[in-house]
Input
Amino acid sequence: MASSTGLSLKFSPLSTSFKQNKVRGICNVNSVSLPSRGMRLGSLRLRVSCAAKPETVDKVCSIVRKQLALPKDSPVTGESKFSALGADSLDTVEIVMGLEEEFGISVEEESAQHILTVQDAADLIEKLVEQKSA
Amino acid sequence: MAAAPTRIDVLQLYRSLMRVARQFCDYNIREYTKRRTIDAFRDNKILTNCSQLSAAFSDGKAQLEVAKRRALVYSLYAPKVKSIMDIKPS
Output
């Protein structure tokens, strides 16, 4: 399937860069762990999941906006946390319910408790939709 | 006396009630169940008294059992004609 090959292509450059960092030795690890937050390589290595499609993120954003009654021009991006947008845990459960209905998926209890940002929700949705269609 | 319900228990009860609400065939009952659980959980959000918390939690669990039974029975006698609110505008 085209989507799965796309996934594997995305993972391989990350793993090769990781191995190269290990081989180069301790001095390289020290330079990465310095608090230079502008280093994208350090933040990329911590991400396990690949990015979700932008349409999915947009749909999630619109559902979040509708649930929390946010105005249309308020900033809701992939990185916004639900708690930062003013949602408590009950709102988060309702948002996950709305996403289940919208995408026709079923989210597990444990996975639902780990959803903290819009990007987490979009990634989980993508994974479940793929599992369902596979 | 039962121990106070944890945050996770409360959220799981909330999620189960919302899931049961989805199973109803009748639009009115479905919307009522969703509305009632949202209102009840938000009203009880500010409770801190241990006995009140466990009372509200066991009440919620009893309602969940009732709702499950009702959803099953209603699905056996589902009306053929769907409510107008369920028909999406084409």
